[in-house]
């Protein structure tokens, strides 16, 4: 969409918002609805709060509204009633902007400007924005156009004052500039009461309309805290001089158009972050003067302006000028002319530093604008002198004196004009040479850096952690180089190009293309550097984590191997020693079962690391390392299982033999005691009746032996398991501890019951 269409839509929304406050119907077409002046009067009456006096007259079949601009203190430059009646799009937009600038911008900011003793509203507004968005690294507002097209600046400005409205990360996650802009405008409308003066699709372009952005940001300034520090203003003043000069000039030039300009300086802006090139529509920077326009191709508007100037320089009607008034005007002009000559001579010699030359260039533009504003005074004096000479009422001496004064004035003016233009041309020549030198230096740097990052990217990461650390340090050096080069890029961000109006487009086209290419290359290097840094940091952390984990696991595994090797599993002296050894081995086996997930974790970390490194040598080393762990692990498990099996069998055999011997001895002792008792009873009692002797079955004794062995083996294994780390970790849990105690009691009771039952059974058989 063209800038004019965007301004028309945006300004229409603003006009309707103001009309709505007074209950007036909205305008549908800004250009046609203002033609009769009535809707314009309604707008101004709403803004001022009282009825305005209008002067209506019929001209060319149209009703013209002559606005009392001087009463309203609105500067209307080169905008006449006929322009409004004729529907001149450009001038109507200029008129509405002048009204917005007065009531929407200056009126809102006047208190802050007075407090800071500042007169540049745009600079104050930019300082306020930068002061409140400096905590957001993604936001760097240097103008009121391209700095806003991604939507981040609007969101940051709102979030800095009202962080409770939304989470900043939600804005960062949005990938579309339109979505971010929609988010900001919605929040401002819902919570700050700011009408949707802008549409996201009109802002999400390479070069949003500056006036529309200023209008909306001023609306935010109206409702948000308005504190602006001098540090923020000084920061704006230290931005690249082309940017600050633009801030200063636009406000002035939009209110005082220079109608006789032949040349302009055009700023070509490179958006560094995205490599885009902006080429604002040419804005008048300075004006050439009368008598030199033949050297340039003039537009129709310039020709009309020149004709008007020649008319002003034509002699005045006879009798309208006196010698006294002529002398007074001449003295005033000569006083100013002397001051202007001193000002030109007082300008510093042209520097050889690009930023200083830019400052000198823009300073001199301001000087030439001042010359332009005073050329009408020179013209009036010359006209007055010509009128006096034409009347023929002067004496010969007076006539000669007036002619000499006119020649002197014209000569000094011409000399000043030529000297000023020569300095302007020299400044531009030096500036262009320095800027082209910067472009060449940037091109050379880009060539070297692109080769450098290509080499860095071609080298695989690894083969060890020290190499990753070395790559990180190498990348830090690249980042430092980018920061140093950023100074040159910032300077080129606002190039100043002066062209004549006949060949302006063709002259800047090649430069724009070159800047576009350089901007894209710079942006690509910045993106690669940022992405590479993220990869290096992630790889370094993964590698360090993996290294730490594998060292801990290696140390643990070595410790367990040493412990297994130190346990004696053969030639044990007694059953107690065998049981203690079995318990130790069972505990180690339980430790291995608990540690098993660590092996799986190392394998997962290895795969994650290899996905970042993508180095075959590293993959081979990691695979060999993990294979070594796996082999040691399996070997340790096999040794433990074999030792536990052997010791369990030995313990069972020893306990069975000992218990069998004990039971046999007990049975023998009981039998002997019973026999002795029977003898005593025989002696003391009548002869007993004959009883049948019951012989213990050998199969029954064998079954007892088998049952006893199984019970003892189960008891041994149960005690080992209950002493394992899996149970020890949870001993603080009362329920687990109770279960542990109950199981132990049951095992002991079961064994005792079996033993006692067997002994009792054997005893009964012997008694029988």
From TrEMBL:
InterPro entries according to UniProt = Actinin_actin-bd_CS, CH_dom, CH_dom_sf, Spectrin/alpha-actinin, Spectrin_repeat
Q: Which GO terms describe its molecular function?
A: actin binding
The family database entries (Pfam families) matched by this protein are listed as: CH (PF00307), Spectrin (PF00435)
**Keyword set for this entry?**
Actin-binding, Repeat
Top-level taxon of origin: Eukaryota
Provide the Calponin-homology (CH) domain boundaries.
5-104, 119-225
The name this protein goes by in its record: Calponin-homology (CH) domain-containing protein
Look up and give the organism this protein is from: Pundamilia nyererei
